[in-house]
Amino acid sequence: MTTVKSLPQAVARPRASLAVAMLGFFVVALAAGPVLGGILTQLDWRLIFFVNLPVGVAALLILSRVAPSPRRPMPFDWLGQITAVVTLASLAYGIIEGAELGYGSPQILLTFAICVASAAVFVAAQARGKNRMIPLDLFRSRTVSTALIIAGVTMAAFYGVVFLQSLYFQGCASASVPRPFSSSSL
After folding, report:
1. For residues 173 and 166, what is the distance between their CA atoms, to the nearest angstrom?
2. How large is the C-alpha radius of gyration of the chain?
3. CA quadruple 153, 158, 163, 167: dihedral sign
4. pTM value?
5. Is 24 helix (H, G, I), strand (E, B) or coil?
6. pLDDT score at 74
7. Pick from 119, 139, 152, 161: most CB atoms within 10 A?
């Protein structure tokens, strides 16, 4: 029988087991992914796009055996969704096109101004809205804030490495960019 004193342990143990299992899957995928990708590209580079099919089928099979989550009707946060899309789209556009047009050009400065304005409207809408997309009090938790900062830095580093590797292979290793839809590759 679980007592009130041992309740935190009774709750923490299954979570710890789940975290260890997820870490194990992540480590196996991290090690097996490049090896499997290398094998598939030796056969035909297009095969790498079919790797997710069996994984998706397995996920659907597992999900079909799980009880559905209880439904809780929630109104759609139109202002939050629209301002989030405008913020992210203008930021991405400004960064991508700024390299070619120049970050001081009026078009790029206007794009960044739109990004900042829509981000401010987004934060205000999330602070005052009834049906918020992101509850801002979530960021008061030091654990959540730290986890988000670490995740952001990790993702930036990961995608930065992918970008820099492609530049290295094209520039230093004299590798060419594959043309997937050219007549010679079909």
Report:
1. 10
2. 23
3. positive
4. 0.55
5. helix
6. 80
7. 119
